[in-house]
Amino acid sequence: MADAKLALVTGGAQGIGYACGEALAEDGYKVILADLNAEGVTEAAAKLGQGSVGMVCDMSDADAILEMFDRIEAEHGPVSALVNNAGIAAPGNFLTYDLATFDAVLGVNLRGVFVATQRAARTMVEKRIKGAIVNMSSINAQLAIPAIPAYCASKGGVMQLTKVAALALAPSGIRVNAVGPGSIDTAMMAGVNANPEAMKTAMSRTPLGRPGTAREIGDTVAFLVSDKASYITGETIYVDGGRLGLNYTM
After folding, report:
1. CATH T-level assignment (fold) for domain 6-245
2. Theoretical Cys-Cys bridge with 91: which of 72, 101, 137, 147, CB 3.0 to 4.6 Å?
3. Using the 8-state DSSP alphabet, how is residue 178 labeled?
4. Positive or negative: CA dihedral 85, 108, 63, 161
5. Which among 123, 124, 137, 128 has a CA at the least distance from the CA of 16?
6. Residue 186 pLDDT class (50, 70, 90 cuts)
7. CB atoms near residue 94 (< 10 Å)
8. CA distance 40 to 20
9. Is 188's pLDDT higher than 70?
């Protein structure tokens, strides 16, 4: 693994983040998983194997992100693939939604993505690495849910930040894309899974009639990182079982 290209996946302790790491490892990357959950990310890296490393990082803390990149480059070398997956939702009533909560969600989901993308890109440009960056957006970049105002706002921001970064970095051969999951069978969907009526409602809005899997997101991320997607940049690929195309059901 010493000569393997290096991939960093944030929010990598479980779910979609871990699945992204798994898919990238299978494609020959040495994978670094970063997460706020110290025990979880250590266990995830051990489970992934193949020289994978777990690191603790608060993606709402710009200094912590920069320090993480410094450490990665000192100990493992430059990152050629970055997956900005870490994210939080924090539902609440729109009329009483707390500003501190709003700021906290944007701090992880949008500000952290910007800081990590900028920091990774600086080294890629300096070392002339034609790298790839994939941001985790959501169908909620386009479809709103009133109970998650900060999450929807942050994912809309991720969609636009992806385009901005793609345009800025294209002259250096660095591609930036996003993935927008629909209903995916992860811990975030546990409440829906446990409620048959809620699941029925969610699936009525999903033409393929089932939740997606974390690995289906991971495989899409791995594709966008790979040379098979060499002419794709600035795009958000929605992996949603057809949800965005749905008008109404009979």
Report:
1. Rossmann fold (3.40.50)
2. 147
3. E
4. positive
5. 137
6. confident
7. 9
8. 16
9. no
Please list, in sequence order, all residues whose beta carbon lies within 8 angstroms of the beta carbon of residue 168, skipping any fewer than 6 positions away: none
Residue (of 72, 3, 23, 11) closest to 222 by Cα position:
23
Give yes or no for a contact between 129 and 172, defined as CB atoms under 8 angstroms apart. Answer: no
Q: Return the beta strands (E) in the chain as ranges.
A: 6-10, 30-35, 53-56, 81-84, 132-136, 175-181, 236-239
Which residues partner with 33 through β-bridges? Answer: 9, 54
Using the predicted structure, report yes or no on whether residue 129 has a pLDDT greater than 80.
yes
pLDDT in tens, 75-99: 999 999 999 999 999 999 999 999 9
Catalytic residues: 151
Both tokens assigned to 146: 């009133």
Residue at token pair 């098979």: 228
Per-domain boundaries in the chain: 6-245
Identify each DSSP E strand in 91-240 by its residue range: 132-136, 175-181, 236-239
Query: What Å distances lie between residue 18 and 91, 96, 191, 202, 248, CA to CA?
Result: 24, 34, 21, 24, 34
Positive or negative torsion for Cα 200, 203, 207, 209: negative
Residue 187 pLDDT class (50, 70, 90 cuts): confident
State the CB neighbour count (10 A cutoff) for residue 232: 15
